[in-house]
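Retro notes, structure queue

What went well: the backlog is down to a handful. What didn't: a couple of records were mislabeled last round, so from now on we paste the full input next to the output in the thread. Example, using Pentapeptide repeat-containing protein from Rotaria sordida:
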Amino acid sequence: MPPVNTHYRRNFRSQLVANRRINSTSIIEQQKKKWSIVIQVIKVIAAILVPIMIGAFTIIQTLQELKIARMQRDANKEQQVHDSLRVIQSRIDTVYDTFIGDLSTIVLKPNNNLTESELMFARAKVLLILDLIDERRKWYLIKYLYDNQLFYAESYNKKFINLDGADLSNVKFGITNQTSQDERKINLTGIRLSNIYLRNSSFENVLLNNATFERSNLTGTKFLKTTIQGVNFNNATLEYSTFIGFQVQHSSFRSAQSAYSSWSSVNDFHGNDLSNSNWTGTIFCDVIDHLHTSLFLVDNSFIFTNRFENVTMKSVSFVRVRFYRAKIHGKSDLSDVLFEESLICRTLFEDVCLQRSRFVKIKLVRLQFIRVNLNGSNLDMEQINKHFIDHSYLPNGTFKSSIFGVNLIQNGAAEQDVRETK
Ligand SMILES: *[C@@H]1O[C@H](CO)[C@@H](O)[C@H](O)[C@H]1NC(C)=O
Ligand SMILES: *[C@@H]1O[C@H](CO)[C@@H](O)[C@H](O)[C@H]1NC(C)=O
Ligand SMILES: *[C@@H]1O[C@H](CO)[C@@H](O)[C@H](O)[C@H]1NC(C)=O
Ligand SMILES: *[C@@H]1O[C@H](CO)[C@@H](O)[C@H](O)[C@H]1NC(C)=O
Ligand SMILES: *[C@@H]1O[C@H](CO)[C@@H](O)[C@H](O)[C@H]1NC(C)=O
Ligand SMILES: *[C@@H]1O[C@H](CO)[C@@H](O)[C@H](O)[C@H]1NC(C)=O
Ligand SMILES: *[C@@H]1O[C@H](CO)[C@@H](O)[C@H](O)[C@H]1NC(C)=O
Ligand SMILES: *[C@@H]1O[C@H](CO)[C@@H](O)[C@H](O)[C@H]1NC(C)=O
Ligand SMILES: *[C@@H]1O[C@H](CO)[C@@H](O)[C@H](O)[C@H]1NC(C)=O
Ligand SMILES: *[C@@H]1O[C@H](CO)[C@@H](O)[C@H](O)[C@H]1NC(C)=O
Ligand SMILES: *[C@@H]1O[C@H](CO)[C@@H](O)[C@H](O)[C@H]1NC(C)=O
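Corresponding output:
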């Protein structure tokens, strides 16, 4: 092994030699060398740059080609989707055709001759097909079943296909695109639509006499220019539903959940039963009763023969709705109710909560308040004293009874009305 000393010395000597050489070269030579290095670097860069540029061009071109290819592919895919949709569509058409064929044996049989098993078979088939088809076809299918008398309410004593639990949401029943001259209506008299999902569906220009919607979910459903006579809405959900321009007569809304619905321009509302139903936040606007208009010379009366018992009408608005000889009773809750531009005539409020009720631009004639809570109402005593009031809380919270408190009967005619209603 060489001593460490020797190694160090050799290194030192080579450094000395290098130093001597630098000292001996001229400044010009140094400059020349510098320049040649610069030129060489430029050459190298140029040499590299050209292929880089070519490469970049190639990359751009490739990207462009890829893009075109992708667009081509997208177009192909779109075509494929379109094709497969068409295939699905034609398959649905085939399934639908087969289904209609399968049903023909049932359709051709007299209704009375249908057996339970045939109806079960039809139910299974219909429920299956309803899962496949769109809303327009669903309407055609329902119409087909109805026209073949397979979809009538129980009261018609016909055998029916039970569609409990079927989903007919968003289906448009009737004629949706009618011109004003065209008064045609689709006749769906006696149709059975019980226990069915009918959310956001619509009934337009339809006759729904004696139809049944018992227990169905009609949330957000619209009834437009539809005649509703003897219809059963018992236990149905009608929240956020809309009723515009039609008649509602002798129909039953018992235990219906109808909160936040909207009724307007209903030109014949009478003989209906609204017991135990919930109409919280509903707006009744221009709802009138034509039948009794002519009989009693009271224009636009409302709730003449309608049954209001144990009804929840919290925060309901009655706008331009006239009450004539109405009876609102049986623990009905009308707190925060608004009566606006309305006439309330010879109407009985019995066992009713009218807390915080607001009466705006209204005319009150011969009213009776029996066991009524008017606490917080905007009615003033001058108005109230014109009517019969008994066992009730006044707007200032004071309890008044005609026996033990001040006798508030001021209007002689009111007494007569009390006897009349008893
Ligand atoms: C229907 O049933 C009756 C007797 O119940 C029978 O006479 C008639 O032939 C049946 N009709 C058909 C088309 O099956
Ligand atoms: C409604 O009527 C218009 C013109 O009358 C027509 O162009 C449109 O296709 C119709 N829409 C439907 C859903 O029938
Ligand atoms: C609607 O159909 C029922 C039978 O389903 C019929 O009694 C009634 O007369 C029809 N109404 C109209 C206006 O055509
Ligand atoms: C009904 O319509 C409302 C509002 O347009 C929407 O929020 C809701 O999801 C719809 N419901 C159904 C079952 O289509
Ligand atoms: C009815 O449908 C609405 C909307 O889909 C839903 O929120 C509600 O729970 C349903 N009500 C009943 C009683 O099924
Ligand atoms: C149809 O309703 C009317 C009352 O609007 C009633 O007299 C008639 O008996 C009902 N018909 C059936 C089959 O339910
Ligand atoms: C509503 O449904 C409840 C529970 O199923 C039932 O007890 C009640 O009789 C029904 N009300 C009406 C009016 O059909
Ligand atoms: C009042 O109606 C509610 C449903 O809104 C029901 O639960 C209750 O039993 C009814 N009360 C009477 C006394 O009918
Ligand atoms: C009435 O309906 C509203 C809205 O759905 C609900 O909040 C309220 O509890 C219901 N009231 C009764 C008495 O059923
Ligand atoms: C409430 O009003 C009645 C009738 O005007 C009056 O007799 C009674 O003193 C009032 N009560 C209060 C606490 O102001
Ligand atoms: C009347 O309303 C007021 C405030 O809203 C409340 O403090 C009072 O207890 C109510 N009185 C009665 C009898 O309900």
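Agreed that this is the format going forward. Reviewer comment attached to the example: The pocket of 2-acetamido-2-deoxy-beta-D-glucopyranose (ligand 11) is lined by residues 375-376, 393, 397 (CB under 6 Å).
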